[in-house]
Amino acid sequence: MKAMILAAGFGTRLWPLTIERTKPAIPFLNRPLIAYTIDYLKQYGITDIIINLHHEPESVQEQIGDGSEYGVKIHYSLEEPEILGTSGALDKVRDLLQDETFILVNGKIITNLDLGAALQTHRSKNAIATLVLKENPKREKFSQILVDEQGYYQGFGGFPPTADHQPPTTDHPLMFVGIHILEPRIFEYIPRGVFSDSIRDVYPAAMQAGEKIATHIGTGDWYELSTLARYLEISLDFMRQEGLQFTADEGCQIDATAQVRHSVLWRNVQIEAGAQISQCVLGDGVRIPANTTFERKVIVRAELAQNDEIPEKAARGEVIGENYVVPIS
Fold it and tell me: What are the pLDDT digits (tens) for 102-128?
């Protein structure tokens, strides 16, 4: 079985961490985020993997290479000059996915949901596609998935109402976890050579033609790192599990009189005497001057931010000395 990892996105809500790298290439506990998806697929014997690229493609290629370090074989699909969307990405490599059931997975997630159980559901439903879901008991801001009594997908709804605006119930809204199981005949509904989205374009066309799209409700852990706040909170959650106060990648230097708590340090960070850092993410090469204090901030070198266009959805920051500092809301 083959899989495709979606890694072409711009990661605008993670800016400035996505300056010079695509979202799945950002470090998470000193490993590229996409490495967790590769490991997840490998657990289920999936070692033939396609990765699509567009924004800062070298950031993935340089870290993952041909996949041999991870025990897999990687084929890269470079989308240029324009990004192609989830189904447009499949169209570009349809000749590699025509033979059997395959997996499409978002490259910005970490999960241990049982993919084997989802495959069993997919086969039992005889569906052209199966979307892997999980319950959203906290009613986080993820679109609700509408499912009929037989467990077939009906569409996306709005965000779930908060607990304050919802009558007491044991039923939880369902959310999509970014994993699709697909049959090759899905290509009958994917237009050729244009941008197309699975949810908005392809699945509605398939359903209108009488195809069934199933759902599988998984249980287990699932993390989606798409905002600065989520990146920090999930990093801290993993650190707490391992008893760590902070993580520091190679080349970091921390003065003995500095205090670093609940923070993520990328490569070659320098923290000088008397500095205090709490709940921060410090990008490559950042220097924190002596006796300065930062709390709940993302900090990158100012020269990077000043040479990069700020995306519309990105949080705004300010230049402080040689650093660009963005508050984490």
Answer: 999 999 999 999 999 999 999 999 999
Nearby residues of 82 by Cβ (< 8 Å), 6 or more positions away: 195
Q: What is the CATH number of domain 228-327?
A: 2.160.10
Q: What is the pLDDT of residues 257-281, one digit of tens each?
A: 999 999 999 999 999 999 999 999 9
Residue 240 CB neighbour total at 10 angstroms:
11
Domain coordinates in residue numbering, the chain:
2-224, 228-327
Q: Regarding the domain delimited by 2-224, which CATH topology (the fold level of the hierarchy) does it fall under?
A: Spore Coat Polysaccharide Biosynthesis Protein SpsA; Chain A (3.90.550)
In DSSP terms, which residues pair with 213 in a beta bridge? 129
* Residue 36 · residue 224 · CB < 8 Å: no
- pLDDT tens digits along 214-241: 999 999 999 999 899 999 999 999 999 9
User: Phi and psi for 191 in degrees, rounded to 5?
Assistant: -65, 155
Task: Kindly state the DSSP code that residue 64 receives in the 8-state scheme.
Answer: H
Q: Which residue has the tokens 């993997």?
A: 49
Counting Cβ atoms within 10 Å, is residue 309 exposed (0-12), middle (13-18) or buried (19+)?
Answer: exposed
DSSP-based three-state secondary structure for 129: strand
pTM for this prediction: 0.93
In a 10 Å sphere around its CB, with 0-12 CB exposed, 13-18 middle and 19+ buried, how is residue 118 labelled?
buried
Tokens 């080349």, residue located: 251
How big is the CA angle at 147 (ends 131 and 34), to the nearest 5 degrees?
Answer: 25
Residue 30 has pLDDT above 80, yes or no: yes
